[in-house]
Protein 1
Amino acid sequence: MQDTSFAIHPGKKIHVNGTNYQSIGSFVSYNLEEKVLNIKAENGHVSISFYRDDIVRITMNPKKTPSLKTSFAVIKIPEDVDVVGRETNGEIHVSSNKLTVVINKTPIRISIFDNHGRLLVSENEAGMGFNEKKEVICFKEMDKDDHFYGFGEKTSFLDKRGEKMTMWNSDVYAPHNPEIDALYQSIPYFMTIRNGDAHGIFFDNTFKTVFDMKSSNDSYSFSAEGGQLDYYVFAGPTPKAVLEQYSEITGRMPIPPKWALGYHQSRYSYETEQEVRELANNFLEKNIPLDAIYLDIHYMDGYRVFTFDEERFPNPAGLIQDLKDAGIHVVPIVDPGVKEDPEYYVYQEGVKGDRFCKYIEGNIYFGDVWPGKSAFPDLTISNVRKWWGEKHKFYTDLGIEGIWNDMNEPAVFNESKTMDLRVMHDNDGDPKTHREMHNLYGLLMGESTYEGMKAQLNGNRPFLLTRAGFAGVQRYGTVWTGDNRSFWEHLQMALPMCMNLGLSGIPFSGPDVGGFAHDSTGQLLTRWTQVGTFTPYFRNHSVIESIRQEPWSFGQDYENIIRKYIQERYVWLPYLYTLFKEASVSGVPVMRPLVLEFPDDKNTFNLADQFMIGSDVIVAPILKPDTYHRVVYLPEGIWVNYWTEEILEGGKHHLIHADLETLPIFIKKGAIITHGTVKRSTEIKESKITVHLYPTENEISSFTHYEDDGKTFAYNNGQYFQCNFEAKIVDQILEIDINVEHDQFKPEWEKGIFVIHGLNSGTEIKVNGALQGNVKKQSDSTIITVLIDMEHFNKK
Ligand code: MIG
């Protein structure tokens, strides 16, 4: 990439690696058409349009008035925004209520301000332009206080200032280290946090793109190998507002089926029906919860997708039903490569229906993948997506509700690791080369698979796991971070990677717990499982021929701890589920870097070895071998050690002890947290809700708990339960209010308790105005439990 990307030396004549950079020059004329401001410059054309008053789109085409078509990433249609314009001698101003775009005329330089006059983005002296290779680029000024987040799935630390990143979906088996700047996902989007405020940029260009936040101290750039410069600026002003704005453009994740949030077990591969049954039995016997087992490529007949090998899996329907009865879902892998085999129905249908990727000359493109020589569905064609989606009836007829998409970069076993870039995708009659469409392949496969499954599941929510994707992938899939290794370094890296995925609009992600390649160890698996308890996606997976890493693989002592943390996942599930619901509405992720909640606090800017679940819980795992202490940063506020009830003052670093059994967890005073019970699977009825209260004199606590059937889309028709808990301490009385806001769904639990942490002795407790008599307090503890009268969960 080094030799194709741009470099700039501020103040000098701009040479871009042997090619000549050409800026678009100065203003010539403008016109206003359907609320789009079109500007003609000496060497290019710029269009400016508002999508919402806090979202503006800027498009530049060197040759002609820019096309306002968008990529598949964008689902938003521009709203009718009130915009006012004003022209002076040297500038044009266009403003919505929340943003002002200032276009300096000679030369053209665009600056964007918010409605408080805060400068969000401005071009540096190089502005925007292109070179003779038809690459497009934009240079922005970089403030000394800018910190950059997002960019999807990247190695290295949380803050991407000082990094140069490429967006090109790549199957990287090894290494995953800071030198590798393109992995499986391409999310050409980032958020800037500067002095506590945030704004965002989404670069909607599907070619290979490069974000260079490294080559200069006072500017950064983003560029693409082709196409238009086409980006959206999000006004913020908070990091959460930016996520709402970005996810308004590229979409949000629907609420996942609850079983997708349980513990999942995988291996490359569980090779026979017998092996799968034994695996499931082991979980049941060892009392380790389990919601899904994955079938990697060995389940297929010669790696033909949409088949089962009849010898290894003589009765898939029976297997799937028996597991379902035990609360376990089966998730088979589906790769895009279709074996070239004239006797194989999928290949036949593909050829006959003209559904495979082809060269412009008309011959099918073949690449080597698992099945040998294979063809690939041209998923840029809507009818092919439909066909591919319908093929999944093979699985849904067997009772399968989850699919695992792998190799969908697409990966091909050759030097370039992917399809020939000259392949011409039909793209519904608007043909484009693979060079332009490559980054979309995983997203399109996701749409096809998700929608296909959805159509066949009689109202149940499908689950899709995908390795590759583009901006918008959250609408269809859960992202796992591919082929990591059983290295402590990869456990460490998983945290910023998943947090940045979350900041990129993808709330549902996780790494292979225990590490995929290489051999895990008992200690590493234990520490990694502790992290997995709180990563949005929680799956243990390992490569063929590596040491086994099922929870019991390293002996009883490790097994006991691992069991405890898998069980703990189920305890936290109601809380996590509520956060998933929040993500589905706001785009704000479940797993959060501290900087998302405390963007003013410089200690959080690059804090990546601890994370938050929601706004009130900090998880600070041990990420190093033989290590039983670590430093934990607790921001402003008072924090409570989840395990010991110890009170810790915020705004400072603490040295925390954590033996192998302990995952350090801290709860913010003022929090309310809803817990469930340990269960074999999410399919088991929830018997009890436990509401943990950490009341404080200083503020009113409030939490809105959400539930629905966890299975269907009925929540879209209002069939959900929502209940607000509020607590305040007034004159030595803790007043708790339960307010059922929505009751179109009846939760399963028949019992509820309040667990009140750290209340001063002598404080009385009222629930919905009634003094509570039956209050239990263990003599040596600061915990009080109160049984909740179930009447309170009926709407008043
Ligand atoms: O070329 O299906 O990332 O999870 O086990 C390897 C076999 C193909 C890569 C995936 C991994 C999966 C493996 N796959």
Protein 2
Amino acid sequence: MAAIEVRDVTFGYGEQPVVESVSLDVAEGEFLGLVGPNGSGKTTLLKLIIGLEAPDSGTVRLFDEPAVEFDDGERIGYVPQDVAATEDEMPITVEEAVRMGRYPHRWVGRFTDDDRRSVREAIERVGIEDLADRRVGRLSGGQRQRVFIARALASEADLLALDEPTVGVDAESREAFYRLLHELNDEGITIVLIEHDIGVVTTHASEIACLNRRLYFHGDPEEFVETDALADAYGGSQRVIHHDH
Ligand code: ADP
């Protein structure tokens, strides 16, 4: 089944479209790397995919439901780009933040043992046990990313949508972070990741989509590095070179 179906989607914040005529399918279990120059519409497309923005025309479906109506919020773990910047004031602890992932699963009342186990496992899984009682606002960017991933795991998300998760993270932590993503992906979680480092993303993703308002390429990472799509998209040419769907 397709986790994501984007059909001829156009969207603009004002008159000018920032995403135009984009169609792309992502099967369940894939690891999609979304690349393109600054301001090319990557974050916007990610928001359209998870239903945070509605297309001006075209359709987006998420697990076979219209993305904007998708009400199974716990299935989607979204880590926004500015998580490191915006959470400075976050007065809650790591454990409390991860617990928020359980809210959609909870009936009225107290946390169950299942909830507690799930929170503990998620925290262990991303390796932040020693930070559990620290305030999220006091953590480094990389540590915060892990908190948000843990929250998504606690919510048993089927799709992780990550917007440049390793910006400001050192090389070693970045490698560890990608290892974690691989493990989660191997377990069947679909991943959509915006990453500015082409070398990194083509190493890790199972497919690449290259965007500059329009979609320049969607397909195999090895094929992507051999085509002109990258240079064309980053050079500003509007010619569509490859499009698998
Ligand atoms: P990317 O993620 O590739 O850097 P974005 O999707 O963030 O690109 O932005 C695409 C374009 O839309 C840019 O020109 C940006 O300035 C504009 N944009 C993004 N968010 C908004 C917004 N909330 N309101 C108006 N314009 C926006």
